[in-house]
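Lab meeting prep.
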Amino acid sequence: MTVTIDSRDIGDYVECDFCGRDYTGSKDPGGLLFGSKAVCPVCVPRTEANAKRDGETHFIRARCPDGMPFAEWCLQLRGGDNTVTVITTDGDETLDNLMELLWGALTQ
C-alpha cells in the first residue's frame, strides 16, 4: 500500500466547499465558515436551515462581514497560506486503515 501526500499552492483560487462554484475574483458578498468549510453566499440559506434542523448551528464558526466579497474573505481566512494537501492511496482501504497509514506517513 502506497500513500502519496502532495501539497499544492492554489494561489488566489477560491471555491465553495459545498457546491464547488468558482468564486476566484468574484465580488459576490456573503458566506460563512461551517466547521472548516467555506460556504458561498448561494449555499448559506440551505446550510443555515440544515444546521438549525440538525442542531448543528454551533458549527457556524464565522460569517463574512457585510459587504465583503466571499473570495476576499476566504483569502483573508487563509492568512496567506494557500496550500492544500491532497492524499491518495493505490488501494481499497477502510477509513480506519487509511487513518493508520496516513498517521504513519505523516510521522516518518
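Slide two material, second protein:
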Amino acid sequence: MWRKKQEDYQRVQTIIKEIAEVKNQLSQLNLFWLDEQRRIIEQLKEEILAFNKEKKMRKNVQKGKLEGRIHQLEYEILPEKYQRYEAIGKMF
C-alpha cells in the first residue's frame, strides 16, 4: 500500500513537471509566433512605404506630362487655332 502511494506521488510529480515543461514550450511558441508577426508587420510596412514612393513618383510623372500638354495647348496649338479663327473672321 505504501509503495502504491509512493508510486502515485512520483507519478503526480512527473505529471506536474511535464505540465510545467509544456507551459514553458507554449510560452516560447507564443513568443516565436509574436516575433514572426512583428517581422511580417515590418515587412508589410516596408512594402507600403515602397508602394507609396512609387505611387508618388508615378503621380509626379503624370503631373509633369499633363503640365507639358497644358503648356503645349496654351502656347502652340491654341494660338494657331486663334489665328485660323481670326483669318476666317476676316474673310466675312
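Talking points for slide two:
Residues 25 and 31 are 10 Å apart (CA to CA).
The mean pLDDT is 88.
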